[in-house]
Amino acid sequence: MLENIQRTAAYIKSRIGDFEPEVGIILGTGLGGLVDEIAIEKQLLYPNIPDFPISTLEFHSGRLIFGTLSGKKVIAMQGRFHYYEGYNMQQIIFPVRVMKALGIKTLFVSNASGALNPDFIKGDLMIINDHINLQPTNPLIGANEDELGPRFPDMSEPYQQNLIQKGIEVAKNNNINCHTGVYVAVTGPSLETRAEYRYLRIIGGDAVGMSTAPEVIAANHMGLPVFAISVLTDEGFPDTLKAVSIDEIIAVAQTAEPKMTLILKELIAGLDA
Predict the structure, then answer these.
(1) Which has the closest alpha carbon to 75: 25, 133, 130?
(2) Domain 2-269 CATH superfamily
(3) Nearest residue to 168 (alpha-carbon basis) of 128, 209, 108
(4) Which of 54, 111, 166, 170 is most deeply buried (CB count within 10 A of its CB)?
């Protein structure tokens, strides 16, 4: 693993020159538009990066973007990897470890998810303040790489509280309907049944999705502060559940994306403070 990380990071460095990233960004389904706000200096396609997974989803662009956003040097993943695509956990978290090797100090994560909390509606945003990982394995299972982090990393604050509070303030100041809550990570790719939605709400979930937890666990293992935000693209309320298509989910995500982008931009701008 370490050799792969080092080989991939070395290749990327050979392509980006003296570019020194401070911030890593993972863009979720339908949320690639943030890239338009980045003053791009370099782009690398996933298939051209050694050892890098390749996104199998037509709505994930599969590009690693290097540039400036809100005065900070950033790496943005336009397209992430999911367990349901057939990737193992080591492959899913590999880009996070590479970004850390390239020098990032903070990780920002976005996703599209389904609302479980009846006080939320589709189109709202939710800043993640904790998660429940129901994916079938943990990305840290196996021999621990001590150079990356400890065998038993603490997860008492997987999402940085100070960034959460600042995110809430940004949303409030801009009249954005933004909640905080617990994200439940499941495997997918099928959406949930009525009984599953009911169960996920009972165990404490406010939103459900098919990503994020593995990357956040890996980031915490390496000591990277994390801020994560969900665009709520559909409603998993058992008593009023309606069929939903991926096209509808992407459409809602794209409509709500400018609000998410505003929050991320302001948080990134204020990192030094």
Answers:
(1) 25
(2) Nucleoside phosphorylase domain (3.40.50.1580)
(3) 128
(4) 111
